[in-house]
Amino acid sequence: MTEKNQPIISVHDISKRYNITHQHGGYIALRDVLTNVAKKPLTFLKHKAKSLVGKTTKEIFWALKDVNFEVYQGEAIGIIGANGAGKSTLLKILTGITPPTTGEIKMEGKVASLLEVGTGFHPELTGRENIFLNGAILGMIKAEIAEKFDAIVEFSGVQKFIDTPVKRYSSGMYVRLAFSVAAHMEPDILLVDEVLAVGDTEFQKKCLGKMDEVTKTAGRTILFVSHNMSAIQNLCSRCILLEEGKVKMIGKTKEVIDKYLKHSNKNKGISKYTHDNKRDPLHNEVIELISAKLTDKTGNLKSEFEAEDEIYVSIEVEIKKNVNVLFIDSYILNDRGIVILSTTDHDNNSSDIKTRKIGKYISCYKIPKNLLNIGEYLITIGCNNPKVQQFFIARNVLSFQINSVSINNPGNSIICLPLEWSTTQIN
Question: Are residues 196 and 277 in the same domain?
Answer without folding.
Answer: no
